[in-house]
Amino acid sequence: MSRYSPPAFACRLFQTVLPVSYRGALLGDLIEEYNLHAEATSPSAARRWFWGQACRSIPFIIGSSLRNGDWLISVSTAVGVYAVMGTLKLAADFMIAKLFAPEPTAFVVLAPIVFLAFTSIGGCAAARIRFGTAVFLALFVMITVAVQIIAKACTIPVPWWYEFGFLTLGPLSVLLTPAAFGVLKPNSNESAT
């Protein structure tokens, strides 16, 4: 039906944050508007427009879900996922420390890999369990990393970009991994049709 395809990753981001009851209609309208822009201007201008809509709309959509009062269940679900994720990360850190105890630089190399793996898995689990949970999980991850940076939890001297990488890539992996892999909470309305 449509001659032009909107950016797939932007569509997945929208699907991640849009409430299930409005997802099909809002995304369908946005794709229809994208096709009109692509025909009127160019596909590249329409892609820029689509990304602009995503960047402007997603914070509003998240804020709207917070105002609806649905956030308390999402926060409690995020706390549960965070607790499991943190426990598994501590166990992995313990194993790394035991296996590579004489070599602290190995821990500096392996820590980001383990951290990003657990934040990505946690983000996918949170997005799969409940809409909006990944946003709160990303916030918890960011706060935890910031507190650890301020408290100088890393005793090995590392450059500023190492800590900044944890502070930015951790929350981003929580949010972007579910969108990249299309991990969404199943929609009971869609499966009935």
Summarize the structure.
This protein has 193 residues and is mainly alpha-helical. The chain is built from eight helices and no strands.
How does this structure look, described?
By secondary structure, the protein is mainly alpha-helical. It folds into 2 domains: 8-68, no CATH class; 71-181, no CATH class. The chain contains 8 helices and no strands. The protein has helices at residues 8-17, 20-40, 43-67, 71-99, 104-129, 133-150, 160-181, 188-192. Helix 2 (20-40) runs antiparallel to helix 3 and helix 4 crosses helix 6. It is elongated and about 60 Å long. The model is unreliable at 186-193 (pLDDT under 50).
Properties at a glance:
193 residues, mainly alpha, 2 domains, 8 helices, 0% strand, disordered C terminus
Distance between the termini: 20 Å
CA-based shape: elongated
Low-confidence stretches: 186-193
**β-strand number:** 0
Structural class by sheet pairing and helices? mainly alpha
Please bin the fraction of helical residues: over 70%
| Tally of distinct domains | 2
What is the H/E string? HHHHHHHH
Beta percentage is under 5%
Question: How many DSSP helices?
Answer: 8
Nearest-integer average pLDDT = 81
Computed over alpha carbons, the radius of gyration is: 20 Å
Largest sheet: none
